[in-house]
């Protein structure tokens, strides 16, 4: 490997240290006994106990998970429809508008999305009386709106890389468009839909700005609670929370990788037979 | 009744010369009739007013380069493209407005388009299940079909666990299982390597004869078309230039395009100097002589024509042959030894280059001629093809 | 070519000469598929901008909601009063505070995009050049932080950069400095935060561009007399260009409108437009002014970005 010069190795290593040092520090300090965040006072799990006794955080976390689950599921349905329409219906009236609307949320600053949705909800409440007040429902609507854009883009990319003759073959063999979609298209874009769902779930779980605009009193999501705590400075409880979230994600990613590798090995074995 | 019997006998034995094929009979009923079919994509005309009759049990090859419109024509037959104008009639039924999933037609795709998420058996069963065929019958017919393509043992595999040749068979089995009246094949052998392709060609013909399905094959490979087809339609720029049996397309091309497209050919430009009842004399500056073609060609004196001669029809010799009708003089410029035959590039005195191939029927034939030798090229009158377009 | 396009059954408007029933079942199905996302996005994405535009023309008021309405409809005296207030826009132009905030956002986003590119390139290059399983591992290592909370990753830097934080401790311990540095609540911290959080967005497109590159091209360049540095500039960089552009857009676009990073890591003088809008709305409760800031931001920042992305996409397609 003569191409890997010392310079490349050094700078890439520095890059990875940059990427992981803050996370490692965060994890280590979550086990710090000392109340002073910067002074090491020995190992302890006391911040984890405090975290689990903090009802505000637990409630907010539960709310965030609920919102993320519903938003991701709605976003997957709407985003898949939009992605399918854009890549499989050829030219139709309003296609330009639809594709503009689908991709615009990707470049829209969160503050604008949040503000505009809030003002819409306020105006709608004045005119139609719905939604009366803001809360979980309005957050779900807002999250679905920006998450469906990501799903639509992922699904569209998958569809356009897919051999269209697969769908033609299904039609040729007697499948009508509706059964064609469920028998052939859907199973084939399932990986894209799953990753779209996971991405939507993460984005929704992670969103602070939009939720701050469109939530009502008493409907604080987890990022909103964290933000208000963190604004006042570093708190050991948040360290503990962050460690737990990183752990969950790491386990998820490693499990996914393991699963993929297992499948690959399974295929290899089948091929050798 | 007699006419249909005729068709069957003519097709069950490809070499049969005693029976007349359907396309040569007056008033034979075509199975697939294409009438003035045109397809435009915006300004571009992909298929330009094509009319064509294909008969039952034929294996018809549409041969053309990329962009010749052959695939568009096939896709219109399958129903994936709507004709801009014209009609397609299959077995007496007008196909206009009939959706792809309702046509009595199946297609084998160039990419095979096997469903990657379904097993081989489920791929093959797909069409039957859509028809609502009972479970037991589906199982039995799938097994039968897989046995026919010699894949009975691989039913449980997924497509990506198969070799290219096996995938091709699955695609064939899947497209045949609904017993279509007409099977469309888009470059069926294109993805196979050369050796496998030769084996599969014959297998495909056997299956077609066994099942008695009418095949329309699209290909860009002239060899493939020659071995497979009962008739070939040569396409260029959205038009069928010539429709004939393989032998006739090769030996009697009707235009410079077809002559050049199929096999290699030497073309000499010239004009008719003498038009006798049993012979035509064509003076060609390029050939440096007057070329004679016996038997009737209808053309007027003074008309500009091209003379086409296949390289393998030309003999090469040091002495001036005495029995040949057409003799040219030149100098060997290049020799390519290709094992079974040798290719010579001979420069005529006029500057025109002529390609000649000679079979190496004995080991030292190729050694006889060498660079810069003065040689005579000759061919018989009936190897001459006179092209007016 | 799209499969459902041009087939007889889809009801394609571009087809001439073939008449088919307008209200066919397939037509309805297609209409339903298109109209559901279309309706949702129209109502919850497009209409909100009209509302924002309308409110940006109102005046702030002590009311619920805190703005005046544009139309006054007086039934008794039968007049309709339309009152449009352009004051917010005039104020935006007059007060250099807003202009500064726009320009500063662009400056900060641009500089941090450049730094991200420089940090990401060696990582992407190393991944693209490593073998199978190592490659997968490194790639996962880059993506993993992206799946963890954005807010918490920014928060991690607060503990790192503050006065008695780890970086200062280390520098003091090594004797590089004898006074703790003020790093948190500076522009520096904002740059670090942006580079850190958006690094994966830069690495991935760079990686996919570099991965496609044929290494023999570099050998060919060297064979033809190019020194490694020349080879890098004349071969690697041009071939990685699509990845560079894609990565830069992916970093620059969210960075311009960023709120969380300047709010947590930046000082009170770190002006960024996203933060200005937030403060206008939440602290000053001036909804019309916040709306005007949003409209200008949309026109000055978002529309050009969308146009650039569009042309990028078209070039990539052709």
TrEMBL record, chain A:
It comes from the Bacteria. GO terms for biological process: transmembrane transport. Its main location: membrane. Gene3D superfamilies: MetI-like. Residues 61-259 form the ABC transmembrane type-1 domain. It is a multi-pass membrane protein. One of its GO terms (cellular component) is plasma membrane. Keywords: Cell membrane, Membrane, Transmembrane, Transmembrane helix, Transport. InterPro entries: Bact_Polyamine_Transport (IPR051789), MetI-like (IPR000515), MetI-like_sf (IPR035906). It is found in: Cell membrane. PROSITE patterns: ABC_TM1. The keyword Membrane applies. The keyword Membrane applies. The chain crosses the membrane at residues 7-31, 60-86, 98-124, 136-159, 180-199, 238-258. PANTHER family: PUTRESCINE TRANSPORT SYSTEM PERMEASE PROTEIN POTI. Belongs to the binding-protein-dependent transport system permease family. CysTW subfamily. This is ABC transporter permease subunit.
TrEMBL record, chain B:
It is an enzyme of class 7 (translocase). Residues 1-18 have a biased composition (Polar residues). Gene3D superfamilies: 2.40.50.100, P-loop containing nucleotide triphosphate hydrolases. Residues 1-20 are annotated as: Disordered. One of its GO terms (cellular component) is ATP-binding cassette (ABC) transporter complex. Keywords: ATP-binding, Cell inner membrane, Cell membrane, Hydrolase, Membrane, Nucleotide-binding, Translocase, Transport. Residues 32-262 form the ABC transporter domain. GO terms for biological process: putrescine transport. SMART domains: AAA. It catalyses: ATP + H2O + polyamine-[polyamine-binding protein]Side 1 = ADP + phosphate + polyamineSide 2 + [polyamine-binding protein]Side 1. PROSITE patterns: ABC_TRANSPORTER_1 (PS00211), ABC_TRANSPORTER_2 (PS50893). Its EC number is 7.6.2.11. It comes from the Bacteria. One of its GO terms (molecular function) is ATP hydrolysis activity. The keyword Electron transport does not apply. The complex is composed of two ATP-binding proteins (PotA), two transmembrane proteins (PotB and PotC) and a solute-binding protein (PotD). Belongs to the ABC transporter superfamily. Spermidine/putrescine importer (TC 3.A.1.11.1) family. Part of the ABC transporter complex PotABCD involved in spermidine/putrescine import. Responsible for energy coupling to the transport system. This is Spermidine/putrescine import ATP-binding protein PotA. It comes from Neptunomonas marina.
Automatic annotation (TrEMBL), chain C:
Keywords: Cell membrane, Membrane, Transmembrane, Transmembrane helix, Transport. One of its GO terms (cellular component) is plasma membrane. The keyword Transmembrane helix applies. The chain crosses the membrane at residues 28-51, 108-128, 137-158, 188-210, 231-253, 290-308. Residues 102-308 form the ABC transmembrane type-1 domain. One of its GO terms (biological process) is transmembrane transport. Pfam families: BPD_transp_1. It is a multi-pass membrane protein. It is found in: Cell membrane. Belongs to the binding-protein-dependent transport system permease family. CysTW subfamily. PANTHER family: INNER MEMBRANE ABC TRANSPORTER PERMEASE PROTEIN YDCU-RELATED-RELATED, PUTRESCINE TRANSPORT SYSTEM PERMEASE PROTEIN POTH. This is ABC transporter permease subunit. It comes from Neptunomonas marina.
């Amino acid at each position: 490997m003569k191409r890997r010069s010392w310079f490349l190795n050094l700078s890439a290593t520095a890059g990875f240290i940059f990427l992981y040092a803050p996370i490692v520090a965060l994890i280590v300090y979550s086990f710090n006994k000392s109340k002073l965040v910067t002074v090491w006072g020995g190992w302890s799990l006391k911040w984890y106990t405090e975290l689990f006794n903090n009802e505000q955080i637990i409630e907010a976390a539960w709310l965030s998970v609920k919102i993320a689950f519903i938003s991701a599921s709605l976003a997957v349905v709407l985003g898949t429809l939009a992605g399918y329409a854009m890549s499989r219906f050829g030219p139709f009236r309003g296609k330009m508008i639809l594709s503009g609307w689908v991709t615009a949320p990707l470049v829209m600053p969160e503050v604008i999305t949040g503000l505009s949705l809030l003002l819409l909800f306020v105006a709608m409440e004045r005119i139609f009386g719905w939604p009366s007040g803001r809360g979980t429902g309005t957050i779900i609507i807002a999250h679905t709106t920006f998450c469906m854009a990501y799903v639509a883009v992922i699904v569209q990319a998958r569809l356009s890389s897919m051999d269209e003759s697969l769908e033609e073959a299904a039609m040729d063999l007697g499948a009508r468009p509706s059964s064609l979609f469920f028998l052939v298209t859907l199973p084939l874009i399932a990986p894209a839909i799953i990753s779209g769902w996971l991405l939507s779930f993460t984005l929704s779980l992670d969103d602070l700005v939009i939720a701050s605009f469109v939530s009502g009193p008493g409907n604080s999501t987890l990022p909103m609670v964290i933000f208000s705590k963190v604004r006042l400075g570093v708190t050991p409880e948040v360290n503990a929370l962050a460690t737990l979230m990183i752990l969950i994600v790491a386990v998820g990613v490693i499990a996914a990788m393991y699963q993929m590798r297992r499948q690959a090995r399974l295929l290899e074995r089948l091929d050798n037979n | 009744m007699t006419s249909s019997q005729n068709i069957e006998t003519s097709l069950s034995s490809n070499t049969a010369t005693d029976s007349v094929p359907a396309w040569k009979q007056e008033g034979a009923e075509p199975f697939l009739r294409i009438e003035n079919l045109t397809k435009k994509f915006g300004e571009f005309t992909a298929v330009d007013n094509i009319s064509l009759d294909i008969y039952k049990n034929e294996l018809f090859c549409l041969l053309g380069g990329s962009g010749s419109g052959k695939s568009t024509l096939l896709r219109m037959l399958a129903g994936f493209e709507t004709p801009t104008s014209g009609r397609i009639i299959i077995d007496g039924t007008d196909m206009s407005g009939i959706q792809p999933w309702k046509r009595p037609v199946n297609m084998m795709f160039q990419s095979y388009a096997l469903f990657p998420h379904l097993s081989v058996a489920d791929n093959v069963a797909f069409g039957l299940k859509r028809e609502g065929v009972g479970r037991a019958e589906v199982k039995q017919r799938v097994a039968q079909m897989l046995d026919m393509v010699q894949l009975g043992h691989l039913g449980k595999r997924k497509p990506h666990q198969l070799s290219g040749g096996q995938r091709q068979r699955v695609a064939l089995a899947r497209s045949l299982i609904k017993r279509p009246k007409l099977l469309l094949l888009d470059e069926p052998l294109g993805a196979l390597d050369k050796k496998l392709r030769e084996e599969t060609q014959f297998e495909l013909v056997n299956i077609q004869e066994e099942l008695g399905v009418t095949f329309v094959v699209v290909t860009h490979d002239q060899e493939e078309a020659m071995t497979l087809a009962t008739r070939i339609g040569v396409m260029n720029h959205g038009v069928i230039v010539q429709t004939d049996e393989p032998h006739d397309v090769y030996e009697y091309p009707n235009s410079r395009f077809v002559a050049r497209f199929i096999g290699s050919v030497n073309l000499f430009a010239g004009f008719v100097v003498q038009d006798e009842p049993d012979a035509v004399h064509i003076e060609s500056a390029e050939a440096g002589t007057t070329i004679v073609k016996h038997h009737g060609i209808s053309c007027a004196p003074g008309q500009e024509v091209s003379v086409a001669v296949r390289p393998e029809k030309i003999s090469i010799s040091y002495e001036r042959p005495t029995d040949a009708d057409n003799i040219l003089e030149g100098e060997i410029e290049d020799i390519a030894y290709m094992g079974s035959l040798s290719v010579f590039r001979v420069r005529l005195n006029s500057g025109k280059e002529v390609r000649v191939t000679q079979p190496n029927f004995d080991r030292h034939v190729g050694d006889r001629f060498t660079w810069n030798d003065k040689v005579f090229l000759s061919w018989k009158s009936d190897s001459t093809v006179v092209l007016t377009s | 070519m799209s499969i459902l396009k041009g087939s007889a059954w889809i009801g394609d408007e571009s087809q001439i000469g073939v008449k088919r029933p307008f209200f066919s079942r397939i037509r309805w199905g297609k209409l339903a598929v298109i109209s559901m996302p279309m309706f949702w996005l129209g109502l919850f994405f497009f209409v909100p901008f009209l509302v924002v535009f309308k409110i940006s023309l109102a005046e702030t008021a002590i009311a619920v909601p805190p703005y005046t309405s544009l139309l006054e409809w007086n039934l008794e005296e039968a007049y309709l009063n339309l009152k449009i207030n352009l004051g917010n826009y005039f104020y935006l132009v007059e007060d250099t505070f807003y202009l500064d905030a726009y320009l500063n956002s662009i400056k900060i986003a641009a500089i941090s995009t450049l730094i991200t590119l420089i940090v990401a390139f060696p990582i992407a290059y190393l991944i693209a050049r490593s073998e199978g399983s190592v490659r997968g591992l490194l790639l996962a290592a880059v993506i993993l932080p992206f799946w963890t909370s954005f807010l918490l990753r920014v928060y991690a830097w607060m503990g790192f950069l503050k006065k008695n934080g780890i970086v200062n401790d280390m520098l003091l311990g090594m004797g590089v400095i004898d006074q703790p540095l003020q790093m948190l609540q500076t522009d520096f911290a904002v740059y670090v935060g942006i580079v850190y959080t958006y690094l994966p967005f830069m690495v991935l497109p760079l990686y996919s561009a570099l991965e496609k590159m044929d290494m023999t091209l570099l050998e060919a360049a060297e064979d033809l007399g190019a020194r490694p540095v020349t080879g890098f500039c004349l071969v690697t960089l041009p071939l990685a260009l699509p990845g560079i552009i894609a990565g830069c857009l992916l970093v620059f676009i969210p960075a311009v409108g960023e709120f969380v990073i300047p709010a947590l890591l930046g000082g009170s003088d770190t002006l960024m437009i996203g933060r200005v809008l937030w403060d206008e709305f939440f602290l000053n409760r001036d909804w019309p002014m916040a709306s005007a800031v949003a409209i200008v931001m949309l026109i000055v920042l978002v529309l050009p970005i969308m146009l650039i992305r569009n042309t990028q996409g078209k070039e990539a397609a052709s």
